């Protein structure tokens, strides 16, 4: 395994960790926590994993493995797209409120 492969594996792992924490929050609530970590809510855990993910993305950028993603225009376009489909879902009755 080379450095690129190692960092891509880290990217996969961190994406999975974000997914796991988001799934826990959906099952038990954002303010719930694991029995052994009463001060760390599921919302905190999601935020922490997002930081881990952002760190790996930054390392991939710094190594020139992926192009820099921090485009404000790209972020705005993604947010607009998510809002568009939220409205669509609300109109379909699959999203409770906006
Ligand atoms: Mg992590």
Explain the overall architecture.
- With 98 residues, the chain is mostly helical.
- The chain folds into two domains: 3-67, no CATH class; 71-98.
- It has helices at residues 3-28, 42-62, 72-92.
- α1 (3-28) packs antiparallel against α2 (42-62).
- The longest helix is centred in the N-terminal third of the chain and has 26 residues, at 3-28.
- The radius of gyration is 17 Å and the shape is flat.
- The protein starts with a helix and ends in a 6-residue tail after the last helix.
- The model has no long low-confidence stretch (mean pLDDT 94).
- The structure holds magnesium ion.
- Magnesium ion (MG) binds at residues 14, 17, 49, 52.
What keywords describe this structure?
2 domains; flat; binds magnesium ion; 3 helices; mainly alpha; 98 residues; 69% helix
Structural class category: mainly alpha
Overall shape: it is flat
Can you tell me the residue ranges where pLDDT is under 50 for at least 5 consecutive residues? none
Q: How would you sum up the major sheet?
A: none
SSE topology string: HHH
Summarize the structure.
This protein is mainly alpha-helical.
């Amino acid at each position: 395994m080379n450095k690129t492969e190692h960092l891509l594996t880290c990217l996969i792992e961190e994406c999975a960790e974000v997914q796991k924490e988001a799934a826990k929050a959906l099952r038990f609530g954002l303010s719930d926590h694991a029995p052994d970590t009463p001060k760390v809510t599921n919302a905190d855990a999601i935020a922490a994993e997002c930081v881990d993910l952002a760190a790996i993305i930054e390392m991939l950028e710094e190594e020139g493995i992926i192009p820099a993603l921090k485009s404000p225009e790209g972020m705005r376009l993604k947010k607009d797209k998510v809002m568009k489909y939220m409205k669509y879902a609300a109109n379909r009755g699959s999203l409770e409120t906006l």
